[in-house]
From TrEMBL:
SUPFAM superfamilies: Oxysterol-binding protein-like, PH domain-like. One of its GO terms (biological process) is lipid transport. GO terms for cellular component: cytosol; endosome; Golgi apparatus; membrane. Residues 4-101 form the PH domain. InterPro entries: OSBP_sf, Oxysterol-bd, Oxysterol-bd_CS, PH-like_dom_sf, PH_domain. It is found in: Endomembrane system; Endosome; Golgi apparatus. Residues 117-136, 417-433 have a biased composition (Polar residues). Plays a role in regulating ADIPOQ and FABP4 levels in differentiating adipocytes and is also involved in regulation of adipocyte triglyceride storage. Weakly binds 25-hydroxycholesterol. Interacts with OSBPL9 to function as lipid transfer proteins. Heterodimer with OSBPL9. Keywords: Acetylation, Endosome, Golgi apparatus, Lipid transport, Lipid-binding, Membrane, Transport. This is Oxysterol-binding protein. GO terms for molecular function: sterol binding.
Length: 699
């Protein structure tokens, strides 16, 4: 309470699509637990334009930018607000949270809350909208005893009587019957004509009504548990309250409400039975396998994801899926429909970020630390464009635990940029490390080779490790990524938690970096990918760092895919390079000497990766593992692709269950746990260190 203070000031408030953002004067009334706003400061002594009761509210800083935050009241109303800067946002958020906690606890003393609530009360609508009319006894606010005035001191709120719950259950039963009648009426409409069962508005109505009933059932369940706790005095030890599971299995996909019946086990194709019967991965050889790059062939697959047909045809499935999800819901364990999948694994997508290996190898050719940092930033920003396959946002396959992916790239040495007057042999003898010579004495190739390996090292949470190296240039990169996906309404957000480290062994430098968040926008129309968030690149040895901002598109105006950044020397705080542009189009680099360089990503040459043929791949290598799903998607057979995908997922669940029952830990193949991260089992820095030791001993 020492930190509770009445604050006021101007904030921008998002009103609607027509009006947009408007400046309004806000007042936080700590005594009453209210957030009020007025047209301007002069009108603050008049009746407020709007009021939110903060008891039971949720105050959430937005991840869109550093200025925006939302206030979600228990009544369902929401204010989306924007401060002038991050500092002002933090001031408002902290004061609002303190006030909210104080008044929520005050109500809790009169109406003991549940011990655990893992839900959030947030809505786009308002209880005061013209289309919503309720009797006072039906108002959801009254159930939670949250009003627009402070509770009288010393008065205890009456406990809800059992007959009240019976009345609510009866009303809900009537609503469920009406909802079923509505669904039945829509599905009985003809498939063609003026008004069809596939009408987009009717499909949206089906999805919305289903989501509403699920939400009401969850709320009723919570009220029942709350009433039981009031009768008994407390909840049983260990009890937790959370949202109920979706009433309809997310694994079942629907076409206009009709479930698809898959063939029985006896009728399953041999490929599906094979997928289900592959031996337990830990029983297969888990010894690291040395991949010979000479066995790899240039990849001829070119699966661009520009086909909208499947998305358009399966609109009803998407609407049904959305009806089962809640804002902020973790999608890690949600089975998504097959038709939204890319024809590649997430592990292969990480490899596709290396499609400009010439820029990667050129990093170490920089003549000084400043140039090497700038070259790394250039490579980093050019990697995301080719990592996407086409303009349509689709999801790669979720890798199976133990799944691996191997590939390599070859590029002529003449294609790799060198610094003026600097080449690969121009370094001092002290910088050079002699690796073991080819035992067959073959001539040195005129190309560089970059080798890549990725492995799914964990299933829950889903963590991938990947590693790439160029032995000839004494450089390698090691990274681990935990993908956390959440449902955000009409978009899906994916946070890439983890860290990568680039090692330039020739210079003794390490560059740590992170990855931006990714968003699949407009998932009901034409889904597209947007990157967002701030990433940092640091080199502790040289003191150079880079700060890069991936900007999400604002509500009005602004460009898509915009990125800005700067490279600076931390010791002097001097900016040596600035970059701006679009991460999938043209980037502009401006150097401290006034020179400007433009990089057109659409014209950069792409080096095709080299992959072993399927027949030479192991059973848990990505392309062989997912080959039947990929072939079915190419053929447009969604049902068959779903069947193969389900077989793989079911096998993974069975294996996980068996390991839990036998208390058998999972053993990785290529990556080892190192603190909170994962490191390749035989990284180049260990090989070089061993070679240096051997060289010293021989001298």
């Amino acid at each position: 309470s020492d930190h509770m203070e009445n604050i006021c000031g101007y904030l921008m408030k998002y009103t609607n699509l027509v009006t947009g953002w408007q400046y309004r004067y806000f007042v936080l009334n700590n005594d009453a637990g209210l957030l009020e706003y007025f047209v301007n400061e002069q009108s603050r002594f008049l009746k407020p334009r709007g009021t939110l009761q903060l008891a039971g509210a949720v105050i959430s800083p937005s991840d869109e930018d550093s200025h925006t935050f939302t206030v979600n009241a228990a009544s369902g109303e929401q204010y989306k607000l924007r401060a002038t800067d991050a500092k002002e946002r933090q001031h408002w958020v902290s004061r609002l949270q303190i006030c909210t906690q104080h008044h929520t606890e005050a109500i809790g003393k009169n109406n003991p809350p549940l011990k655990s609530r893992s839900f959030s009360l947030a809505s786009q609508g308002s209880a005061n909208s013209p289309g919503v009319q309720r009797r006072p006894s039906q108002n959801a606010v009254s159930f939670f005893n949250v009003g627009h005035h402070r509770l009288p001191t010393g008065k205890r709120v009456p406990i809800m009587q059992p007959d009240h719950l019976v009345d609510v259950r009866e009303m809900m039963s009537q609503a469920e019957g009406q909802q079923r009648d509505l669904i039945r009426s829509i599905e009985c409409l003809p498939a063609s004509g003026h008004l069809t069962s596939l009408d987009q508005d009717l499909l949206m109505l089906k999805a919305t009504s289903m989501a509403t009933m699920n939400c009401l059932n969850d709320c009723f369940h919570i009220l029942q548990l709350q009433h039981a706790s009031q009768q008994k005095g407390s909840l049983p030890a260990g009890t937790t309250i959370s949202w109920l599971e979706p009433k309809i299995s997310l694994a079942n996909h629907f076409k206009n409400g009709a479930a698809q019946n898959f063939p029985a086990e006896i009728n399953k194709p041999a490929s599906v039975r094979e997928e289900q019967s592959i031996a337990e991965p830990c029983q297969l050889t888990r010894e690291p396998e040395e991949i010979n790059p000479d066995e790899e062939l240039e990849d001829i697959c070119d699966d661009k994801e520009d086909d909208l047909g499947a998305v358009e045809e399966q609109r009803s499935v998407i609407l049904h899926l959305l009806s089962q999800l809640k804002l902020g819901m973790d999608l890690t364990r949600v089975v998504l429909p097959t038709f939204i999948l890319e024809k590649r694994s997430l592990l292969e997508m990480y490899a596709d970020f290396m499609s400009h290996p010439d820029l990667f190898v050129a990093i170490t050719n920089g003549s000084n630390p400043e140039e090497r940092m700038i070259r790394f930033v250039e490579y980093y920003l050019t990697s995301f464009h080719e990592g996407r396959k086409g303009a349509i946002a689709k999801k790669p396959y979720n890798p199976i635990i133990g799944e691996t992916f191997h590939c390599s790239w070859r590029m002529p040495k003449s294609n790799v940029a060198t610094d003026a007057g600097t080449n690969s042999s121009a370094h001092s003898p002290s910088e050079q490390v002699t690796l073991p010579k080819d035992p067959e004495g073959r001539a040195e190739p005129d190309y560089y080779t970059v080798k890549f390996v990725a492995e799914q090292v964990s299933h829950h949470p889903p963590v991938s490790g990947f590693y790439a190296e160029c032995v000839e240039r004494n450089m390698c990169v090691n990274a681990h990524v935990w993908t956390k996906s959440k449902f955000l309404g009409m978009s899906i957000g994916v946070t890439m938690v983890g860290e990568g480290v680039l090692h330039l062994l020739e210079h003794g430098e390490e560059y740590t970096f992170s990855l931006p968040c990714a968003y699949a926008r407009s998932i009901l129309t034409v889904p597209w990918v947007e990157l967002g968030g701030k990433v940092n690149i640091n080199c502790a040895k040289t003191g150079y760092s880079a700060s890069i901002n991936f900007h999400t598109k604002p509500f009005y105006g602004g460009k898509l895919h915009r990125v800005t950044g700067e490279v600076k020397q931390n010791m002097t705080n001097t900016v040596v390079c600035r970059v701006q542009g679009e991460w999938n189009s043209v980037l502009e680099f401006t150097y401290s000497n006034g020179e400007t360089k433009y990089v057109d990503l659409t014209k950069l040459s792409v080096t095709r990766k080299r992959v072993r043929p399927l027949e030479k791949q192991g059973p848990f290598e990505s392309r062989r593992l997912w080959q039947h799903v990929t072939e079915s998607l190419r053929d447009g057979d969604i049902d068959k692709a779903t069947e193969h995908k389900r077989a793989l997922e079911e096998r993974q669940r069975n294996e996980e269950r068996l390991r839990a029952e036998t208390e058998t830990p999972w053993c990785t193949k290529y990556f080892l746990k190192d603190g909170d991260g994962w490191v390749y089992h035989k990284p180049l820095w260990k090989t070089v260190s061993a070679a240096q030791t051997q060289q010293t001993d021989s001298n």
